[in-house]
Amino acid sequence: MSDEAFGDLIARLRSRKISRRRFMQDAAALGVSASLAGAVIQSMPAAAQSAKQVTFWTSHTEPDLTGLKMIVDAFNKANPDTVVKMVQVVGSETDTSKLMTAVRGGTGPDVYMLDRFTVAQRANEGVIQDLSSYLSKDSVDLKTRDISFAVEEATWDGKVYALPFDTDARAIYYNKTMLKDAGADPAELDSAKGPVTFDTLNGLATKVNKSAGNNFSQMGFVPWFDQGWHYTYGFAFGGNFFDEASCKVTPANDQVVAGHQYLYDYAKTLGAQKINAFIGNFMGSTPYPPQTHPFITKKLAMVLTGDWFIKNLKQYAPDIDYGITYIPIPKAGDKSVTWAGGWSLVIPQGAKEPDAAFKFMNFAAGPDGQKIYTVQTSHLPTVKALEADASLYDARHTFFVKDLLPTARNRPPLPVGALYWDSLTSAWQAIYLNQQEPKPALEGVVGKVQPQLQPSCPIKIGG
Amino acid sequence: MNPSTTVQTTVDESLSAAARAQGRTGRFHLPSRGERRNLVLGLLFISPWLVGFLAFLVYPIYYTFRLSFTRYSGFGQPTWIGLANYQRMFDDQVYHTALWNTFYYVALAVPIGVIVAMVLALAMNAPVPEVPVYRTILFMPSVLPLFAISFIFLTLLDPNQGIVNEFLREFGIHPPNWFGDTRYAKIAIVAIAQFGAGQVALIFLAGLKGIPQSLYEAAMIDGAGIASRFRNVTLPLMTPVILYDLILGVSQGLQVFTESYIITQGGPANSTNFYVYYLYANAFRYGGQMGYAAAMAVVLFLITFAIAILIFQTSNRWVHYDVT
Predict the structure, then answer these.
(1) CB pair distance less than 8 Å for B288 and A452
(2) Contact yes or no for B177 and A96 at CB 8 A
(3) Which of B158, B265, B287 sits opposite A121 (nearest CB)?
């Protein structure tokens, strides 16, 4: 028997690189007696022996995945009695089929990362667990810890089902050089001067547009590109998407229709097909290589996108001289409105280690975890204390945190969140393709969504 | 009359009827001990398949049928709502669009698929020494998963940088924005489907090999050219294989899913929202719609079944089973 080999084996056991069973087998192979090997296991620290395994599923991809991994590592280091294993799974904001089938089959994870605007829906379906008892046991008060809209989204039927993890906000990015070259003054867009109107923005955009044959070779602005969603224009024009008193979805109210009328007219003026051929395959939610984004390739002078784009620009186009400003306003004197989303952590039904799972979640979604994530990925935190910590952001992020987030709107957390999103998306596409007028298209959304919402009425948001 | 006597009489009558029937045909008799033993043994031998068949096919079909009468999220208890899910299909505009898109796809993809596979099979059957190499090359795209092909086509059909549009521009054609235009998105997906034609081509190739060479020789002696030989010998004798492919193609075509899942997510404006894609969205994306999705599955089954019957009914007019 080699003492050195046995010593090495013990070290591997202690660092949990091998299981206890594997240790016994390997020890036997080295000729160590079973009683001696057993004694080694007995002498292990109790915590390491009974370390709880927590499985954590996320559908995030790089670069955010690295941020999550750093949180997991930090937690595992600080908590030897729990081992969190992160697994990347297929899925998206609204597609959780992997989670649902696994939970049904009894092989679900202990922690899942869920888009916060679907928490109400998944809670109503019964896929995820009520966290109230864990929160009160650990005396965590989300309402004082996190920003209020995020807590609202994490709540369904008066109970908290998720811990808010991060957030975001949308704004206009503009390429100063492209605007200057086209004879437009980028200073007009300076955020210090407040928001411009959509008319002003259109004027600047038109100067940049250039055609080559039947196609645009460069464009000033494509309103529905990137984050120019239905919700974006509905909110920007002062609209609401849900009326709590009557428990009705309201995608066809005048302001939301006005927002979509802007898209419809923009497409009509420049030619819907011509614009969409310029944008090409970037439409739709299929992930495309970020380095081919038309703002990054300097073909698009202005884009409506989120705070995370700062990081993309830093990585793929550090030479672009750009500014960030408010989403435009319908008429002078109006307030600019943006909206925020974000993710959350939940415990699915049938989790094997729910207590340990909550301990990890509370670390990841609490100040410790969110701080790591904010620094690493430059996403915005939902923890109020971190938002106040200026050392975590560069100057550009401060605009999002200080000027946009406090008044940002959010999608109504409804049990039909995904259906509402998809129905709005079809209508919005028909509108910017000039196939349907905004009013009838959006009225069609009511017909699809309201009957499915009805069984859950009345609904109290965040109540 | 005493009711028990009545029952007794009826039983006696039916027993004697059974005995008469047995005497007449010799087919209706209780199995002997040996036969029973054989039956049990036989069933035991195929039990792995039987268990799989019952657990993974019969039960899910029954369960889907039952779910189609409920409102269900996949968790907790389903709520019985009778025929409401079926009624909803009549009013659901997206459902109508999805159904129309799917029929449009099948009507284009299946016949084109037969032609492409036939051309491939004829090429694979060419009397040249290098034919194994050609067969491999022609079959290769069918080995790729549809998932991967979808990504390839996303690049090929890019409106600005895509090689297909570059090619069209060379000829002065103003190329379309394939996946971004509601008029072309379905057609692009029909084109993608042709990459899987190699599988069918192999079956066609087997069919071609089964045609006796003597028929071609006889036709040549009668002065038939290539086209005439194809029309009068090859095509009629291939009809049983074509029938097989039609039925298979229709049933697969009605289930088109991957391309719209990967490339277009049903868009733009629902133009590639196919039946099974919409079914999937209801089951796994929209909360509490598992019952509606199940009802859609039941209806899809009935549609597939009806079309298959229809094709069979017409087949005696155009399918030739006999060489003579």
Answers:
(1) yes
(2) no
(3) B287
Domain ranges of chain B: 1-30, 87-318
pLDDT, tens only, A366-384: 999 999 999 888 889 999 9
Distance from the Cα of residue A197 to its chain's centroid: 28
Question: What is the average per-residue pLDDT within B75-85?
Answer: 93
Residues of A in contact with B159 (CB under 8 A): 277, 280-281
- Per DSSP, the three-state class of B24 is helix
**Cβ atoms within 10 Å of B222's Cβ, excluding its own:** 10
> What pLDDT shows up at residue B265?
86
Complex-level ipTM: 0.82
pTM of the model: 0.84
Q: Please write the tens of the pLDDT for every residue from A246-294.
A: 999 999 999 999 999 999 999 999 999 889 888 875 554 455 677 888 9
Pick the CATH number of B87-318 from 3.40.1010.10, 3.40.50.620, 1.10.3720.10, 1.20.210.10: 1.10.3720.10
Neighbours of A449 (CB within 10 A): 24
A415 vs B contacts (CB less than 8 Å)? 287-288
- Return the DSSP state at A92: -
- Among candidates B179, B283, B287 on the partner chain, residue whose Cβ is nearest the Cβ of A416: B287
Substitution target in B160, B183, B279 with the highest count of A β-carbons within 10 Å is B160
Beta bridge partners of A249: A242
Cis before B268? omega within 30: yes
